[in-house]
Design the sequence.
């Protein structure tokens, strides 16, 4: 089963793709979508939507997962987060994926061991768990963490692996996805 | 100049299309996108995105406008509004449109005469201004109102009409856009 985790944000949207099979989680790809700062709000949101659509087309995940949002600090930041989160969810659903939601505390607990872990701890643990050579940037590490957690949550919940055939050789990709779309 | 106004919302997203030429605003189309209630959040957002993309392709507006959001009542409702607003903005920008923003008070003042107008007053005035046979539903009326206001704001600001050729016969369309996409 291939899982894409997404950490939506208006300036940086992290994504991480992992495979889960035979009790093991294997890294496939991760990166960050950074809409051009000088573009309009609408153009930046279109950049996130189009970028995720291309990433999903490239890596063909079976399912998607994002962090659940509880209470944001204030209405203004909730609106800004909501705008980025909305386009991320829409892009994933438009590609035919179901989108799960996991609480941040749950994700940190699964990956680091306790729900109050700092961002740096998540980065370090994600690097170790996935046997990466370098620490992923924070937004991508959060996205990988939620994907790893979903992999294990799926196993615990006895979820079936959907019957998509896996490629025998799989491209590995680390980096930032910065192509300008709009 | 053809203008699309959009009033984004998670359960109902209103849209209204008007033409502005020679100091007159003429109705072209309006309607409401209602994502299926039983669908997941992500699927409902994808429905709004895809629906607006089709509406823009159908009516080929020159520019778009949405209501500016000031402070929402609380972070939870700001997040929900933000998600719908984000996909609406992304869909409009992905179609190559610039997206203007107008304050609700400004819109009500232009259409009804005072900034604190009730929804029913906006519906009535939009019907009269556009010479419609029936009152548009509230979400569509708000979308038409913001488009009307943008038409006059553009004239006052001396904006150029972009050089897209107008069709001589123009389809008029009133109704709800409810086709299921996802």
Sequence:
């Amino acid at each position: 089963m291939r899982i894409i985790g997404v950490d939506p944000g208006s300036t940086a949207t992290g994504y991480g793709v992992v495979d889960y099979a035979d009790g093991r989680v294997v890294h496939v790809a991760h990166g960050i979508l950074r809409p051009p700062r000088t573009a309009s709000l609408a153009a930046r949101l279109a950049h996130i939507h189009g970028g995720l659509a291309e990433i999903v087309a490239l890596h063909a995940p079976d399912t998607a997962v994002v962090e659940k949002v509880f209470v944001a600090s204030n209405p203004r930041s909730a609106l800004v987060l909501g705008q980025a989160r909305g386009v991320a969810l829409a892009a994933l659903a438009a590609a035919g994926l179901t989108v799960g939601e996991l609480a941040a505390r749950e994700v940190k607990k699964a990956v680091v061991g306790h729900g109050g872990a700092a961002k740096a701890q998540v980065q370090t643990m994600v690097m170790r768990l996935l046997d990466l050579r370098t620490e992923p940037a924070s937004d991508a590490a959060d996205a990988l963490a939620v994907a790893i957690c979903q992999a294990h949550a799926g196993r615990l919940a006895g979820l079936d692996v959907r019957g998509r055939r896996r490629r025998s050789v799989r491209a590995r990709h680390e980096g930032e996805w910065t192509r300008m779309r709009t």
